[in-house]
Amino acid sequence: MKLAGATYMEVQAAGGGIIFTTSHTKEASEDQLLEDFVNLSEQMLRCGTTTLEAKSGYGLETETELKMLRVLDRASGKTPLEICATFCGAHAVPRGANEEDQTKLIVQEMIPKIREEKNKGKLQNLENIDVFCEKGVFGVESTREILKSGQSIGLYPNFHAEELNYIGGVEMGAEIRARAMSHLEEISDAGIEKMAEAGSVAVLLPSTAFILRLKPPPARKMIEKGIEQYDKKSIFFSGVIVALGSDFNPNAFCLAMPMIMHFACVTMHLSMPEALVAATINSAHSLGRGRTHGAIAVHRQADFVLLEANSWEHIIYRIAGHEAIISKVFKKGELVYSK
Ligand SMILES: N=CN[C@@H](CCC(=O)O)C(=O)O
């Protein structure tokens, strides 16, 4: 349907997309999901990823959402990758429910249950909360309510905003000091300003914009906001912190960050150094790890890749050719992959 021109929401309305994945996730056992997750994360590792953020969001009811979060928790230790989990019970409104009911279910049942589990010492890698803040899914006020409820139990907002339509999600996210917002294809100029002021990280997802044939988000405007302010001699001169994500999901099946950096350079006009910074230290910052991960320096984790190439730019330049040049991957100084 997508290739024939159907929009993301049309696919979902026809029973595909998140709704389809949710029904299969419900049927799958926890062990089966864990095995799949570990296999997929091994593939990411071979592409040079050492830390990943992964979401629930294909349960949409309490037990399956918790099952997904338990899978992510159990996966820590089963793979060398560091996993930072995100609760996304507000990924879609299931058939037969409405936005109001689903918001109530999340705030009154799912989040208290998560708090209970965390108090028992479980779900230790769960750090963030996400909402698909979008026209026809969760509006700005429901999103605010869900994110604030997550914040009240110590989760950091890191949510989908202005992907398909502008609805003012970014302005709200900046108000509640969201740690990160993703997608942002339809962000407004005012939203860019607010994100820069709030220090919220923009997580851009080039494979998703590509596969859905969306116009790319205004990455240059985000980055150059800081330069413009600096030139005006403004006291405050930060641009938006731009990070990159693979957004691996059934809609955009891409596990390779080198490919994502390539797309970001071509479709979003990032320079190669900007793409590298976005995929490493800025991505680390979007997960609260900006001081410990994402760069090679004293007092940081030694997470890095060794390349067999004439210059580092080849990791971006060679379209889908990264497997030939990533010769070793290290996590916390230990060799975790060798070609
Ligand atoms: N836009 C909503 N959520 C996901 C896609 C999930 C899916 O289609 O399975 C995203 O971040 O791209």
What does this structure look like?
The chain has 339 residues and is α/β, with parallel strands linked by helices. The chain has helices at residues 8-13, 17-27, 30-46, 62-75, 99-119, 140-152, 169-175, 189-198, 206-211, 219-231, 257-267, 272-279, 281-286, 314-317, 322-325; strands at residues 51-55, 82-90, 126-131, 156-161, 180-183, 201-204, 241-244, 304-307, 326-331, 334-338. The strands form two sheets. The chain has a seven-stranded parallel sheet. Strand 3, helix 6 (140-152) and strand 4 (156-161) form a beta-alpha-beta unit. Helix 7 packs parallel to helix 8 and helix 11 crosses helix 12. It starts with 7 loop residues before the first helix and ends with a strand. The site of N-(iminomethyl)-L-glutamic acid has 11 residues, from helix 2. Residues 17-18, 21, 132, 160, 163, 208, 247, 249-251 line the site of N-(iminomethyl)-L-glutamic acid.
Bound molecules: N-(iminomethyl)-L-glutamic acid
Beta-strand portion reads 15-25%
Given as residue ranges, the uncertain stretches (5+ residues, pLDDT < 50) are none
What order do the SSEs take from the amino end to the carboxyl end, as H and E? HHHEHEHEHEHEHEHHEHHHEHHEE
Mean pLDDT reading: 96
Structural class: alpha/beta
Number of domains: 3
Shape: globular
Report the total helices.
Answer: 15
The share of residues in helices is 40-55%
The first-level CATH class of the largest domain is given as Alpha Beta
With strands numbered from the N-terminus, the spatial order across the biggest sheet is: 1-2-3-4-5-6-7
The CATH homologous superfamily of the largest domain corresponds to Metal-dependent hydrolases
Give the number of DSSP strands: 10
